[in-house]
């Protein structure tokens, strides 16, 4: 079986990163659209290309008039240069000297977009670095709304289930703590390069979509375990038990179920770490770590400790919310099972009843 580190694609990728400063696969595509008719003035286009080539971390700029490096033309146009011009628009290929996913590449995208466009034209910046910048921006713009909806829905559902204001807040904070720990471990392993020898991957920046995916899965599984535990604690509490007794009994009842489910899921996701694809490895290790942390440290230690310290405040809610919970809350109803009715005693015969019983000698 071919090891991932010995694959030809991996060897070529390592050679490109280590020996060649220019990254063609991560180049930026700069399109200069003429507002009027006709092509852009060659002098203005050349001046704009020279300015681009002087930006930090730019290896070279290829366009219809040749190749420019640090403001100096190093190669004249050739037969393939016609591909940089079409229908009056010009394409400039900016080849960065750094990895397209690096911080320097993202800074290069912002610097390129900040440059003034040639007179009478509009500049559009694309390519792998620009896609990464735009993707991060889109996620960042929508992230507060998404987090707000998740927190609101979680709070409402847990309140309707428990009738408490404190328990939903506790669940959200502890689940967020678990997610942050997973993010830190993912950076430590896959970005900083720890365990790269064991898992056989090349360290690099985290994929933009990976934190979102890990958050959704880790938060959802954590909330499942939270509901399992709270349901048993509330069940004992509703029978009139004290807070301490309810927490201890509920944890004892559900602990084995949560531990078994977590072990099964963790083993399944750890299997993804055997993949030769770094994205799949990150997904498997991150999810398995989130499950193990939640089932052990969060559910087994922090949740019982918090509820023990909070005491009766665990089940507190203001008067209006208590009334709302009594009206719309989620309750576990136990159906009344009819008890079997004993048959009436058989009527005794009057003659038999009046006849005295004679004992035998």
Show the helix and strand layout.
Elements: H1 8-19, E1 28-34, H2 42-53, E2 58-63, E3 66-69, E4 72-75, E5 85-86, E6 89-96, H3 103-114, E7 121-127, H4 128-162, H5 166-191, H6 196-199, H7 209-237, H8 243-270, H9 278-310, H10 319-328, H11 350-354
Helix pairs in contact: 3-4, 4-5, 4-7, 5-7, 5-9, 7-8, 7-9, 8-9
Would you identify the CATH H-level superfamily of the largest domain?
Answer: Multidrug efflux transporter AcrB transmembrane domain
The percentage helix is 55-70%
Give me the number of helical elements: 11
Q: Residue-averaged pLDDT, rounded? A: 84
Q: What is the makeup of the main sheet?
A: 7 strands, antiparallel
| Radius of gyration using CA atoms only | 34 Å
Q: How big a fraction of the residues is strand?
A: 5-15%
Instruction: Enumerate the spans where pLDDT stays under 50 for 5 or more consecutive residues.
Output: 334-338
Question: Helix and strand string, N-terminal first?
Answer: HEHEEEEEHEHHHHHHHH
C-alpha end-to-end distance:
98 Å
* Class from secondary-structure proportions: alpha+beta
- Per the CATH scheme, the topology name of the largest domain is Multidrug efflux transporter AcrB transmembrane fold
What is the CATH class designation of the largest domain? Mainly Alpha
| Total beta strands | 7
What is the count of distinct domains? 2
- What would CATH call the architecture of the largest domain? Up-down Bundle
Shape: elongated
């Amino acid at each position: 079986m071919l090891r991932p580190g010995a694959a030809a694609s991996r060897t070529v990728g390592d050679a490109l990163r280590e020996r060649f400063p220019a990254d063609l696969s991560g180049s930026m595509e700069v399109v200069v659209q003429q507002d009027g008719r006709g092509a852009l003035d060659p002098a203005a286009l050349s001046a704009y290309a020279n300015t681009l080539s002087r930006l930090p971390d730019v290896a070279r700029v290829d366009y219809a008039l040749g190749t420019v490096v640090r403001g100096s033309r190093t190669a004249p146009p050739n037969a393939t240069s016609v591909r940089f011009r079409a229908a009056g628009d010009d394409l400039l290929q900016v080849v960065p000297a750094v990895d397209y996913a690096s911080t320097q590449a993202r800074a290069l995208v912002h610097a390129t977009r900040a440059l003034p466009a040639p007179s009478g034209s509009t500049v559009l910046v694309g390519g792998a670095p620009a896609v990464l910048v735009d993707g991060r921006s889109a996620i960042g713009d929508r992230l507060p709304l998404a987090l707000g909806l998740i927190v609101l829905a979680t709070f409402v559902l847990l309140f309707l289930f428990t009738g408490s204001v404190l328990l939903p807040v506790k669940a959200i904070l502890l689940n967020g703590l678990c997610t942050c720990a997973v993010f830190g471990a993912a950076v430590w392993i896959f970005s900083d390069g720890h365990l790269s020898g064991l898992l056989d991957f090349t360290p690099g920046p985290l994929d933009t979509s990976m934190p979102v995916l890990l958050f959704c899965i880790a938060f959802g599984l954590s909330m499942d375990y939270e509901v399992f535990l709270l349901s048993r604690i509330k069940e004992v509490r509703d029978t009139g038990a004290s807070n301490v007794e309810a927490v201890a009994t509920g944890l004892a009842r559900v602990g084995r179920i949560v531990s078994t489910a977590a072990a099964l899921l963790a083993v399944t996701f750890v299997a993804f770490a055997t993949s030769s694809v770094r994205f799949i490895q990150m997904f498997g290790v991150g999810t398995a770590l989130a499950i193990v942390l939640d089932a052990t440290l969060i559910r087994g230690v922090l949740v019982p400790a918090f509820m023990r310290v909070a005491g009766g405040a665990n089940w507190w809610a203001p008067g209006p919310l208590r009334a709302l919970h009594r009206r719309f809350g989620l309750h576990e109803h136990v159906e009344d099972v009819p008890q079997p009715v004993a048959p009436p005693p058989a009527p005794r015969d009057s003659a038999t009843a009046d006849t005295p019983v004679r004992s035998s000698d």
